[in-house]
User: Fold this.
Amino acid sequence: MRRPFLAGNWKMNLDRRSALDLVNQVRAAADRRADVDVAVFPSYVYLDEVARALAGSRVRLGAQDMCHEDSGAFTGAVSAARLTPVGCESDSLGHPARRHGFGARAQLVGAKVRKALEAGIDPILCVGETIEEREDGRTEEVVKRQLVAGLASVSAAEMSKVTIAYEPVWAIGTGLTATSEQAGAVHDYLRGVLAGLFDEAVANATRIQYGGSVKPSNVSELMAVDSIDGALVGGASLDGDSFTAIIEFQN
Ligand code: 13P
Assistant:
């Protein structure tokens, strides 16, 4: 049985005060909903304070990316070695905003996944196609390439630490959600690829989140799909009431 995993990706939003207010609401919601895992992914600059606000709670803390190196002359980058001391337990890697906005190639994402695992940080590996790739019938080819490269150096045993997030680029921040059939089909496909890379047991145990315009009004329908194990939520995670409603989805 895969435990539902609901995560809020705050992206480059929220100031200090609103981040700390929001975290209190998320903490309370997670306490009421013990059968799901919850995480938040704030800006780097608030990780330390948010970690303190989350002390003793069920909510896990994640960063929104990290460098593939430990230290050195990487201006503007943040390494796993800087993230773990502030209480960072997870990291979203290969988010479409990083792949498409900042040119992160699939192999580089794989190197980051490796670094995260070595540092004791549980990675969320994001994969997803653009609208052009979908319309060209290349969705499976694209997500497979991203998945295979992202997991190139991961062992079957390490897969218990890894979450996959299917984030179709065309559904992110657009209000367009993949239908539960569209998302479910890609999740099933990804699980098949995992079975080929590892084995059936790993494929069945790995959580695959869906991300792309998840909101209180569509979360239950998405979560009802067998192969959808959670959500990586952007816009709707910035408001305490709406993220609470997502955490408390009906199942
Ligand atoms: P939205 O929920 O705003 O579409 O963002 C999804 C996302 O990118 C989560 O990482």
Observations:
- The pocket of 1,3-dihydroxyacetonephosphate is lined by residues 9, 95, 167, 172-173, 211-214, 232-236 (CB under 6 Å).
